[in-house]
Inverse folding.
């Protein structure tokens, strides 16, 4: 029986809304993080993506520093750094530096996907596929660079040695569940879009988990799409921006986040498409009462230690309001 409160956090892609500049987008990111801190969110993670005009979190480490500088206590981190794109040494140096400036506040979530298309992945790192296949070894290197013992090695990330940066393994399939369990690390599953393997991944992670110096028992974070408004109708209206964004993904016509419109029969039809329906399976859209009922059931089923919420809404104020209502829901469920 789960007795500990379920923590709640935010995953942000720094989505660029139509008619918004990058500066406005980054201001909105910081404003949201500052409000999240006030609402009691545990952490604020930024995701690495490339070659998408509607996603502004490509320089993830830089953006983490910007958000950490403008907040005081909330944990800031990566959800995640796509490790095959990078040298483990450089990532250790970046996050060791961040954690030395913002003590006990920086998280390092690591994934193995490119966070982009094949051509861009090749442009980022010509040996990307080899690096992706070597993901477990690359994680080992990160851990080595952060260890105090690494001071005796020939290759050192001196600004990372002995610095406390919790490492999380991210996954959207079962592969990373095996790795997180084997290494005794916390595991974050991207169930906000990769819904098919959620239950298998949870079972693998908990069944195979081996205690480590980092973690004595499994720690599971699950991703959820959240859009909460004062009424079900208003939340459905806000969700039209998300639906149109998904249409762009499936048609290869990605665009900036569009302003919401009244729900149409056509958009409702899109939601019934089997692929879209599966992708949005763990989406909770509606009033506080509606979302609370769905989230309560989801927590009971997954027994997740933490939910990390993704809220793709056009307007920054509506987005903050949604996260405020979701925080209220989580506090009520935890009381």
């Amino acid at each position: 029986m789960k007795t500990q409160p379920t923590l709640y956090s935010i995953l942000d892609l720094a989505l660029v809304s139509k008619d918004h500049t990058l500066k406005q987008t980054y201001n909105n990111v910081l404003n949201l993080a500052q409000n999240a801190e006030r609402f009691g969110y545990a952490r604020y993670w930024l995701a690495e993506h490339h070659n998408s005009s509607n996603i502004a979190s490509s320089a993830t480490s830089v953006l983490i520093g910007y958000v950490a500088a403008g907040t005081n206590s909330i944990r800031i981190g990566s959800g995640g750094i796509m490790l095959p794109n990078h040298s483990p040494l450089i990532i250790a140096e970046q996050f060791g530096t961040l954690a030395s400036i913002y003590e006990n506040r920086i998280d390092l979530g690591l994934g193995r996907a490119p966070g982009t298309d094949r051509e861009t992945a090749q442009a980022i790192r010509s040996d990307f596929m080899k690096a992706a296949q070597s993901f477990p070894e690359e994680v080992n290197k990160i851990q080595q660079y952060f260890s105090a013992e690494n001071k005796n090695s020939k290759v050192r990330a001196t600004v990372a040695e002995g610095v406390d940066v919790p490492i999380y393994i991210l996954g959207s399939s079962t592969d990373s569940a095996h790795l997180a369990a084997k290494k005794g690390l916390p595991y974050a599953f991207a169930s906000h879009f990769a819904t098919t393997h959620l239950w298998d991944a949870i079972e693998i992670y908990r069944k195979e988990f081996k205690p480590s110096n980092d973690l004595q028992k499994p720690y599971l974070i699950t991703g959820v799409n959240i859009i909460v408004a004062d009424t079900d109708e208003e939340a459905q209206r806000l969700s039209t921006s998300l639906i149109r964004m998904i249409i762009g993904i499936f048609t290869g016509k990605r665009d900036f986040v569009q302003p919401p419109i009244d729900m149409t029969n056509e958009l409702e039809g899109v939601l019934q498409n089997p692929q879209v329906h599966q992708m949005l399976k763990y989406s909770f859209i509606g009033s506080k009462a509606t979302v609370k009922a769905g989230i309560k059931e989801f927590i009971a089923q997954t027994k997740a230690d933490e939910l990390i919420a993704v809220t793709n809404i056009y307007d920054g104020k509506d987005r903050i309001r949604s996260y405020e209502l979701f925080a209220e829901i989580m506090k009520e469920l935890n009381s």
